[in-house]
Amino acid sequence: xxxxxxxxxxxxxxxxxxxxxxxxxxxxxxxxxxxxxxxxxxxxxxxxxxxxxxxxxxxxxxxxxxxxxxxxxxxxxxxxxxxxxxxxxxxxxxxxxxxxxxxxxxxxxxxxxxxxxxxxxxxxxxxxxxxxxxxxxxxxxxxxxxxxxxxxxxxxxxxxxxxxxxxxxxxxxxxxxxxxxxxxxxxxxxxxxxxxxxxxxxxxxxxxxxxxxxxxxxxxxxxxxxxxxxxxxxxxxxxxxxxxxxxxxxxxxxxxxxxxxxxxxxxxxxxxxxxxxxxxxxxxxxxxxxxxxxxxxxxxxxxxxxxxxxxxxxxxxxxxxxxxxxxxxxxxxxxxxxxxxxxxxxxxxxxxxxxxxxxxxxxxxxxxxxxxxxxxxxxxxxxxxxxxxxxxxxxxxxxxxxxxxxxxxxxxxxxxxxxxxxxxxxxx
Length: 428
Hints:
The protein has helices at residues 2-17, 19-40, 60-71, 82-90, 104-108, 129-142, 144-151, 153-169, 175-193, 233-261, 264-269, 275-304, 312-333, 340-358, 369-374, 379-393, 397-421, and strands at residues 49-55, 75-79, 96-100, 118-123, 216-221. By secondary structure, the protein is an alpha/beta fold. Helix 14 crosses helix 16 (379-393).
């Protein structure tokens, strides 16, 4: 164990002596986290989003409304129950859910009087910018009931008769307003008389207050305690830290190539040190650097940007699991090229692909459905999800097992493959 620790200290000292490497390992991730956190604090980026739809009304009107939502080009809709919808948003699988509330169908039959039909919009707190876009789509589709009132004679007359009954029943209206509304209803009566007959559904009575609102939207932010991230930095710091992991992985992976081509690895074997001790020292140095990076940046986020993890224990589990995964990636990179130049090019290409698929460069929910499925192969996705689950998504212990278990499995498999393929000399 003393030999492994000595090798670990040696690699950490080399990293600290490399000023450029030290900057891109520790400070570049901080710049990314702060920069994008500041940008996304007030920006709005419309794009197609996955949404879970729930019908709690069960009427023909609610089914038609949800069918219209599912057909909207900006929606990637799935159908589920309330519990499934909330869970999907909370775990980051959907951007939002839309629940059609009971009474939607009855309220949809009224246009002039009574409460509007009501839906509940649950939004991922990390995607607040999407809420306005989704509300706009709901308002647009909700307004279709007004179109039917003015194009369907039977439905229009039924609504008009309800409105007249409400007008007669109301006692608090000023005489002038009562007279104006009576004149409006007479004009609408003449309008419907001149319209060709068509079939429609009759309305039912509602409140005594007029309502021309297309639809009522109750907006909810979804997490375990119905409280999302404290601010945008709670979202961008995990992404910035993953970029730090990528820098650590590249730095130590390429350093193995450098030591192999320079003959350092062969000299270490004469020390005497076993091959297992040499690789264990390199792995431990990578792991400790990644953990130190994550702990340092989260400490800064805690003090300066008021990012408060939901559970420090779960955050530690997420960081440790991520460290294991990126140690495995480091070992894999060390066998992808025979020279520093080839290893650097291939290694960064692999890391950038993982980053793009996992949401480190292109936000996860910007991706088409096939790419989101493909992103499951990227440890970047699972690392971000694990840290978000501990910081603000409120993952339970069992929910943390999936991303953390995948990260550990990825690290063990990749490290084992790298060790098996590894050549100890530039000729081997």
